[in-house]
Amino acid sequence: MDIEEVIKRITNGGALIKEEAEELSRLPDKESLYEAAHRITKAFHSNKFDTCSIINVKSGKCPENCKWCAQSAHFKTTAEVYGVLSPEECMQQAVFNRKQGVGRYSLVASGRRPTDAEIHRYIESYHSIRRNVPGLKLCASLGLCTEEQLNRLFEAGVTTYHCNMETAPSYFGNLCSTHTQQDKEATLAAARRVGMRICSGGIIGMGETMEQRIEFAFYLSSLGSLSIPINILQPIPGTPLDQSERLDEEEYLTTVALFRLINPKAFLRFSGGRAQLSDDTQRKAIHIGINSAITGDMLTTVGCTTPHDMAMIEELGMVNSNDTDWEVKHDH
């Protein structure tokens, strides 16, 4: 394969095809793949880096049976269980993160779908944040919301809605049976209709093949997701995946490179589980194609500290810039 031709085609608005991605994944020497992804990243994004943080606004007792999740009521884990946090707690955490330079902030809740009473409570939090933390961009990840609920959130200032597709369509049924990716697609389509941007990615290292990761990257491309969190499975004791093998770091870097070539305009986002990676691997991932991060602690696992991330971004010549609103892509 002529990698220079591939780089030129993608840079000029063309696309990688599945067979090419699979061939690239099998290259014995991955450095040429990594460098191609780096050049594509620079062509579309220069040195901009997007940062966000999250708060686990409601934890545990989720009725869904996602095999990776500590918050599922189907599994016995040590995850905290609590109801919706107060607007004051959400606002204080927003202030803390904003002072550290984070540009986006999301409330993330367990559960299939919020009640209208919970939506009202979340809206109170968003109003409090807007009053006290001007300039902070607001996101939400609250499950399978109705269009009416999403519209209320949008009017409260939420600009981006997050709902991960998690894995390739051919593999999702092995990991969850209580909802479908079509349910998630409907939620994201409704979010777009009310005016929000979308954020959707998933988790790698759950037993899927590299071919399925490629399938997943193309699936996210077909959805028009321009913010793609790439989580790494962190096996949680008590979940069905608690004995999963740790993902090889080169396999992770190869996945990032392929996601970049398949989704050249997307912000590929460091997410949960990346604290398992060495600092050198994290730096190389940024060189290859990671250009955004959820920084600070994750939902039920410890993340990388914000000062650590900000120092790494600066060291690598990246600019923490949240003036990087990705294009709103409407349904076809």
UniProtKB/TrEMBL annotation:
<keyword id="KW-0001">2Fe-2S</keyword>
<dbReference type="InterPro" id="IPR058240">
    <property type="entry name" value="rSAM_sf"/>
</dbReference>
<dbReference type="GO" id="GO:0051539">
    <property type="term" value="F:4 iron, 4 sulfur cluster binding"/>
</dbReference>
<dbReference type="Pfam" id="PF06968">
    <property type="entry name" value="BATS"/>
</dbReference>
<dbReference type="GO" id="GO:0051537">
    <property type="term" value="F:2 iron, 2 sulfur cluster binding"/>
</dbReference>
<dbReference type="Pfam" id="PF04055">
    <property type="entry name" value="Radical_SAM"/>
</dbReference>
<feature type="binding site">
    <location>
        <position position="66"/>
    </location>
    <ligand>
        <name>[4Fe-4S] cluster</name>
    </ligand>
</feature>
<dbReference type="InterPro" id="IPR024177">
    <property type="entry name" value="Biotin_synthase"/>
</dbReference>
<keyword id="KW-0408">Iron</keyword>
<keyword id="KW-0949">S-adenosyl-L-methionine</keyword>
<feature type="binding site">
    <location>
        <position position="269"/>
    </location>
    <ligand>
        <name>[2Fe-2S] cluster</name>
    </ligand>
</feature>
<dbReference type="InterPro" id="IPR010722">
    <property type="entry name" value="BATS_dom"/>
</dbReference>
<dbReference type="InterPro" id="IPR002684">
    <property type="entry name" value="Biotin_synth/BioAB"/>
</dbReference>
<protein>
    <recommendedName>
        <fullName>Biotin synthase</fullName>
        <ecNumber>2.8.1.6</ecNumber>
    </recommendedName>
</protein>
<keyword id="KW-0411">Iron-sulfur</keyword>
<dbReference type="InterPro" id="IPR013785">
    <property type="entry name" value="Aldolase_TIM"/>
</dbReference>
<dbReference type="GO" id="GO:0005506">
    <property type="term" value="F:iron ion binding"/>
</dbReference>
<keyword id="KW-0479">Metal-binding</keyword>
<comment type="similarity">
    <text>Belongs to the radical SAM superfamily. Biotin synthase family.</text>
</comment>
<feature type="binding site">
    <location>
        <position position="106"/>
    </location>
    <ligand>
        <name>[2Fe-2S] cluster</name>
    </ligand>
</feature>
<keyword id="KW-0004">4Fe-4S</keyword>
<keyword id="KW-0093">Biotin biosynthesis</keyword>
<comment type="pathway">
    <text>Cofactor biosynthesis; biotin biosynthesis; biotin from 7,8-diaminononanoate: step 2/2.</text>
</comment>
<feature type="domain" description="Radical SAM core">
    <location>
        <begin position="44"/>
        <end position="274"/>
    </location>
</feature>
<feature type="binding site">
    <location>
        <position position="62"/>
    </location>
    <ligand>
        <name>[4Fe-4S] cluster</name>
    </ligand>
</feature>
<dbReference type="GO" id="GO:0004076">
    <property type="term" value="F:biotin synthase activity"/>
</dbReference>
<feature type="binding site">
    <location>
        <position position="69"/>
    </location>
    <ligand>
        <name>[4Fe-4S] cluster</name>
    </ligand>
</feature>
<feature type="binding site">
    <location>
        <position position="139"/>
    </location>
    <ligand>
        <name>[2Fe-2S] cluster</name>
    </ligand>
</feature>
<comment type="function">
    <text>Catalyzes the conversion of dethiobiotin (DTB) to biotin by the insertion of a sulfur atom into dethiobiotin via a radical-based mechanism.</text>
</comment>
<keyword id="KW-0808">Transferase</keyword>
<dbReference type="InterPro" id="IPR006638">
    <property type="entry name" value="Elp3/MiaA/NifB-like_rSAM"/>
</dbReference>
<dbReference type="InterPro" id="IPR007197">
    <property type="entry name" value="rSAM"/>
</dbReference>
<dbReference type="GO" id="GO:0009102">
    <property type="term" value="P:biotin biosynthetic process"/>
</dbReference>
<feature type="binding site">
    <location>
        <position position="199"/>
    </location>
    <ligand>
        <name>[2Fe-2S] cluster</name>
    </ligand>
</feature>
<comment type="subunit">
    <text>Homodimer.</text>
</comment>
